[in-house]
Amino acid sequence: FICAIEMRNALTVTIQNCTLEKNRFGIRVTNGTITDLTITNCTIQDSWTDNLYAARGVNWTISGCSFLNPAKSGTSGDCIQIFAGANIDNVDIYNNTFSNPLTTDKQCIIIDQSTYTTSGLTIYSNDFYGPGYAGRASGGNGILLVVDAASIYDNLFYGCKNGIRASGGTITCNNNTILSCLYGLVSIDGASITTTGTIVRKCDINYYT
């Protein structure tokens, strides 16, 4: 299928206990407003492009899911991509597992809202796995953000090219564990990253700015 699940102009949607695999997109949120979206206890894997693609997000909860092996077409795709469609408000992503083993510049999570506002974005208690120590130099990123603000805490990153990379914005990163990545924390384009209690080990560069 092009999409296992496609949504537009919906007010309240709950997706739970589903396995979505080998589609072009696992879940795609396109035009219109989707508010009060809950995705729980799902496995979304082996998509040709993105496991979850959205152009906007308001009052979303994504928890207890596994996002595995996107971009099976070998071209482009991320575990979760929320990309420049409208403002983001109150999005919580927690207790999920992300695995992106591709040695290309693909992300476990990419949120790019450079032309819109972002508030209430929280990413916590997730596990992020890149291609591992041997392949990390070529790609497979943890989190890439182009947002106004975000709170990222209590996550594990292993074997990614970049653990957490922020382009602009104010990012709070507390109590994360970043292991065997090429770069631990990356701050570019004026991003302000503040961190307390984050452990960065066995990375080629712990902090890059």
Give the secondary structure arrangement, pairings included.
Blueprint: E1 3-7, E2 13-16, E3 19-21, E4 25-29, E5 35-40, E6 43-45, E7 52-54, E8 57-63, E9 66-68, E10 80-83, E11 88-94, E12 97-99, E13 107-112, E14 118-124, E15 127-129, E16 141-146, E17 149-153, E18 156-158, E19 162-167, E20 170-174, E21 177-179, E22 183-188, E23 192-196, E24 199-201, E25 205-208
Parallel strand pairs: 1-4, 2-5, 3-6, 4-7, 5-8, 6-9, 7-10, 8-11, 9-12, 10-13, 11-14, 12-15, 13-16, 14-17, 15-18, 16-19, 17-20, 18-21, 19-22, 20-23, 21-24, 22-25
Overall geometry = globular
Give me the strand/helix succession: EEEEEEEEEEEEEEEEEEEEEEEEE
Gyration radius (Cα, Å) is 16 Å
Largest sheet: spatial strand order: 1-4-7-10-13-16-19-22-25
Structural class: mainly beta
Summed up, the helix count is 0
The residue-averaged pLDDT reads 89
Number of strands: 25
Task: Please characterize this protein's 3D structure.
With 209 residues, this protein is mostly beta strands. The chain is 0% helix and 55% strand. It has no helices and 25 strands. The strands form three sheets. A nine-stranded parallel beta sheet has the order 1-4-7-10-13-16-19-22-25, with no helix packed on it. The termini are far apart. The model has no long low-confidence stretch (mean pLDDT 89).
